[in-house]
Design a protein that fits this description.
homodimer; 340 residues; alpha+beta; Arc Repressor Mutant, subunit A; Beta-Lactamase; Enolase-like, domain 1; 3 domains; five-stranded antiparallel beta sheet; three-stranded antiparallel beta sheet; 12 helices; 10 strands; 49% helix; 19% strand; DNA-binding; GAF-like_dom_sf (chains A, B); repressor (chains A, B); WHTH_transcript_rep_HrcA_IDD (chains A, B); Heat-inducible transcription repressor HrcA (chains A, B); WHTH_HrcA_DNA-bd (chains A, B)
Chain lengths: 340, 340
DNA sequence: CGTTAGCACTCAACGTGATGGAGTGCTAAC
DNA sequence: GTTAGCACTCCATCACGTTGAGTGCTAACG
């Protein structure tokens, strides 16, 4: 793969991303100053096709990049492009004006991403399982039930109704809360070990109360895992010519409805930094014509969640990458403003 | 509008709903046993068009119903069709198997509606503003803040961080809670009158504490108003031939993204029982080719929320109506199971 | 030996015209 | 009032020729 081939591949991918039409040797020669004639480019293109970087619908149509072609482009040929100052300002203004509560941060983040990239955006809101336990408190509800309120370090609160075992009084629950708070403080919710549980058991003493505690912890964590996904710009894909086919759109909308599936996908990419999955590299049916770019964001070293751009394989990788990188850093600052 | 005209109109609407193609006099004569020849039907159709119930793309295409035609059909000609026992069983099973927590009820309700009607469904989850106040409790957070936990009769819980005024101790807040609980019990959240507030003021005595109370009530209610909307079956509209045009689909998807708009629409129909808005009767741009059927559901006489079906004007009104009526009654039972 | 011009060939896209079918509207007969 | 008959309209479809973009190959060039 000599330099000229790379430049030609780059030119083809860029032109195709822009025009959405198969690109021919003549166009490349005209638009990019490669110093060679269309005939030479044709020869190189034939080579690139042989190597698997380009595809051909039929003789006499131009070439389009294959998944492998895009992959090479993304990994080695992507021109770095800093974000417009203008766009940065827009983003700041957007957050300033529209976000009032912490849960609006993610909704608006999704909006911004889809607005800037003209693609679908996905934002997986911070996950309590990754957050550190802060405290658990009980409120009396009636003589058989109490409300458990769980707080994490990152400042999220969840609540849950719990049954009190026969014979237990609300005071027992308050004592239980003290024990649990003492033992669990600082632990992340998904790393509560048997050892810690044993500790709690010993401190509580009473067996039936410990069972209740177990139940409470279990159910509280269950709520905590209930992470939220925000989707933005779903209508944007319709602007892309490759999705003028209603069948394809339907497949994608169907995928959007399967929230759990999307969450799982984003989950799988958690903690991997910025990652691009191109076309057929995606295993999920319906995403084979798409590329997914994901990034995970942190707050003081603590993993928070995932933001992603979903578009056609023909998406503007450079722009999306720049944006995600920017949002990545920025999001922590915005969240911090709402932290206590 | 004599009886024969009505029967012909009914036949045309039904056939058009089924086939999505303009219907001609011959088809009507063949498929419906009206005892008259196509020529007679043609004459009647010309009359119906004159009266505004039918439309005509060009000479020599069949007729399609106008908004007025659908309106008459829905109001006067709709054959009542009870729900299949089979479908009822399916719905029960669905709720049984998939719903574990109260907030999943609405998600699944949306799924069921879109699955049965093959259209988009909307479910506005119970609104705390309409719910009766049950109690408010505080939990200490640090020395300047507390967590306010608000509960309603219908069993929904919301929480919110509140600042404590300088000099106020957590004990003051607990006293405040007692007063507020005493005064507000049983009131619906959107009907807290100045008189009640005055009462609270007198009982609290301390002025700066009352201001804090006001702030707390205000902010808690603010959270309470934060109702949720569930959307289901968005991909279903793509199956309808009238939405094979990508531009139209785009307009609708765009509308789906404007959650607040949808909430407002459903809100406007709150408490009106079952209501159908047909085609151009809709004021919202993008919904002019659609019909919206809404119904509000109750729990022990208390208004809970709205369920709706959104489809092309050509939707199966009879089926949608039957289903919404059934869900209407059923939903209360399902919610009741999670009530305490 | 790499590069280039030239040329034949391929294929999609487009416009054109012919054809058929579904449906209407009108008129005259029943 | 109802119906059969008929001329007319319009859409959908297909076949057909044309055009233009693009390739692949070959032979000439520096």
């Amino acid at each position: 793969m000599d330099e000229r081939k790379q430049r030609i591949l780059q030119a083809i991918v860029q032109d195709y991303i822009e025009s959405a039409e198969p690109v021919g040797s003549r166009t490349i020669a005209r638009r990019h100053d490669l110093g060679v004639s269309p005939a030479t480019i044709r020869n190189e293109m034939a080579d690139l096709e042989m190597l698997g970087y380009l595809e051909h619908i039929h003789t006499s149509s131009g070439r389009i990049p294959s998944s492998k072609g895009y992959r090479f482009y993304v990994d080695d040929l992507l021109p770095s492009k800093p974000l417009d100052e203008e766009e940065k300002a827009l983003i700041d203004k957007w957050y300033m004006e529209r976000v009032r509560r912490i849960d609006e941060v993610f909704q608006e983040t999704a909006r911004i991403i889809s607005h800037v990239t003209k693609n679908v955006s996905l934002v997986l809101a911070p996950q309590m399982t990754q957050a550190a336990f802060r405290c658990l408190q009980f409120l009396p509800l009636d003589d058989r039930r109490a409300i458990a309120v769980l707080m994490t370090d990152a400042g999220f609160i969840e609540n849950k109704i719990v049954d009190m075992p026969d014979g237990a009084a609300f005071e027992d629950f308050q004592r239980m809360a003290l024990v649990i708070n003492g033992c669990l403080a600082g632990h992340t919710l998904d790393a509560i070990s048997p050892a810690v549980m044993k500790n709690i058991r010993e401190e509580i003493g009473d067996e039936s109360l410990f069972e209740a505690a177990q139940e409470v912890i279990h159910r509280s964590l269950d709520t905590g895992k209930h992470e939220r996904l925000y989707l933005g710009g779903t209508s944007e894909i319709l602007s892309q010519p490759e999705f003028h086919d209603v069948e394809k759109v339907k497949e994608i909308l169907l995928m959007f409805e399967e929230e759990q599936l999307l969450k799982d996908i984003l989950h799988a990419h958690l903690g991997e930094g910025l990652k691009v999955t191109i076309g057929k590299e995606n295993e999920v049916r319906g995403m084979q014509d798409c590329s997914l770019m994901t990034a995970t964001y942190h707050l003081d070293g603590e993993l928070l969640g995932t933001i992603a751009v979903l578009g056609p394989t023909r998406m503007e990788y450079g722009k999306a990458m720049t944006l995600l990188n920017y949002m990545n850093g920025h999001l922590a600052d915005v969240v911090k403003k709402f932290r206590w």
